[in-house]
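Annex B, item 7. Sequence and structure tokens for protein A, then protein B.
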Amino acid sequence: MRELYNIDIERAILNSIIFDNTKLEEIASLLNKEDFYLPFHQIIYQTILELIKNKDFIDEFILKDELIKRKKFDEELFFEIISTTPIENLEEYAKIIKELALKRRLETFLKKNSINITERDTFELIEALKKELENLEKDNINTFKLKTFRNVKNKDIEFILKDFLPIPKKAVTLLSAKGGAGKSWLVLQLALKYINQTGKKVFAWLSEDPDFATKKRAEKILNEILINHNDTKYFDINHPIYNNFCYLGSETRPFHLIEYDYKNKKINPLFYKLKHTLRDFDFIILDPLIAFFGGDENNNSQAREFMNLLTEWADKEDKAILVVHHNNKSTAGGIRGASAFVDAVRLQYELLTNESIDKKEILPAGYRKIKIKKDNWGVQRILNKKEIEIQIFKDEIMLQKNKGIKNGR
């Protein structure tokens, strides 16, 4: 007989909330403490609810101190929760716990009433059963949250850098290009431009470039590109405003967000730590995609899972996420790997090399053409064009000089 509880899922739910407090929003209206089977799990969940009411943030240490203070701490059971791997799709797992809890309630009711079933009036038993079923129905799970036009508020898609290269908030945008096109220069310019305009925080993991190369490029962009456009108030890379640009380079080895083996997959616990670290950042850049993708690059299912993980992060935490990806090397163009990388996003830009554009077109030195390859957000209407010309370098000679930066030349 199948047990009417799942301790592993209970631990995973609690672990996910402890290490990512925003996850509580997904399940707070769905689960009560009584839905957990183990009494200690009930205590943990209730304590988390009470603490988060009064604090902006809790972690395992705050929770442990509170449990000790309440004389409710169990070191062995607490360690089992903390050492469990966090999970995504928390709402789906919470529904499993809820369903098991409802079945336990129904089983308890039937056992209780079967003891004296021969002594009770049949209609009385039927009415009692109806009442209990009504109570269970009220507490049941709505698998589908249906909406009508009346309960959906009108709103427009929000963009950052709307007048330059629009990047939607609460979404993932894909930027693709062949090698040597200047992707790193472009994303650095986007980051610095956004900080100049808003003063908000940007994180970029530029895993192919050493830290010092990124700093040198940023200095050149500020003093040779943005300053010419008269939209930069700050030209010194050491100005305090640039404390809002944080980055990691090739010195820090990137990790795969989802780890696959021949049978299983799991979200890398480092992903939750990264999300927590970046909770105050509005604009996030990951370059290149393949450095963070741990699956088969040509597997559409795995590609979709990876992109959905990022999309959920962007949507739930109101972030604009830009993922940089390589084009394949064929003359036909297109991105490397599975088509699901593009299918999963609503906006894709392609940074073209000068060799990729019409031979009749002559771009000014240092300029690149950016093509809107996929546009479900109406970016073409915002910009009134399908291709944008942006200055990436001061000139083409500067690009050749700075290719030596990576090697310390």
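Protein B:
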Amino acid sequence: MSILVVGSVAYDTVETPFGRAERVLGGSASFFSVAASFFVPVNLVGVVGRDFGDKELAAFRGRGIDLDGLERMDGQTFHWQGKYSYDLNSRETVCTDLNVFEFFKPKIPERYRRSEYVFLGNIDPVLQREVLDQVDRPRLVACDTMNFWIEGKPAELKKTLARVDVLLINDAEARQLSGEWNIVKAARAIRAMGPRTLIVKKGEHGVLMFTEDGSFAAPAYPLEEVFDPTGAGDTFAGGFVGFLAGAASAGRPAASHSEAITDATPEMVPQRFGRAHSHALGNPLRRQTACSVVGRFGRPDRWQARRCRLPTSQGPRWRVTRSRKGTPTDPRTAPGWRDPGTPSCRVAGARPAAARRSNYRMSPLA
């Protein structure tokens, strides 16, 4: 079981009120592939220039990411520069240098074509369809797009969406694509274009999912320090699709998309600007994003000793452990348990997700 991702591999120059990072590794395919590689092998297809060195390639090596589809062309690698406002919810694009990415024509290697899961990064919708023409009946196709394609190539984008199972976009893009201000009406209109599942990313406010069975909402993981949200959406997409592929590879019953959202969301550990110039997706994902360090994705074999980080002044912190014989244990019977409705637990988003499973118990940390 593997995932094929087609998208950009780039250099980013990012400026926020908290610092500046020059020409660090970025691009939708980069963020997605590293996150998804925690679950299953990833086949990456993209293009870079002659300036793309071993230092950047080292971020992918040793992670189960196949780079045979990463093409190298004469010229410079795609470069994006942006500046964020103080709240990190809005940004200004300073410059976009497409360079070799302007001439990118995805060529899917023969052994990639049998990938059962496909993620189409934010590229021209015509190229996205060309990718689909080269693969052999994937089990699931997920797709990302942006306002540039929604405004510039609406007809081509709708042709692509007719062949997509899952679309991941933010709320502004959902309103622009559908022409509807209300997000529920927007979701209905977009799903009528083809995608069975629409996932609306809302940044620090979490995510909404719409399917034929209804809707689902999940909050974002609360953080005290965030320095750069660049790539957070692609990282989330990697965890989402990676979880679904990993569950299928392990022979588990078909995982629901809502389970993928809740269980595949990474613990987010931001790094500070200037700590190390190798922070670009280095050890592991040393990128300054809200989802920068993908530590534990909530996989069943990693739920033991998982912690819900609550400041001690606001209540106890909790350790989640598997009961010795796997017998059902109600976490509310644990010593010192506080009802999720109390202010201290509400700060932490109630109890950890893993504790809601019946064969786990909770105990307060010292």
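Comment on protein B: The mean pLDDT is 77.
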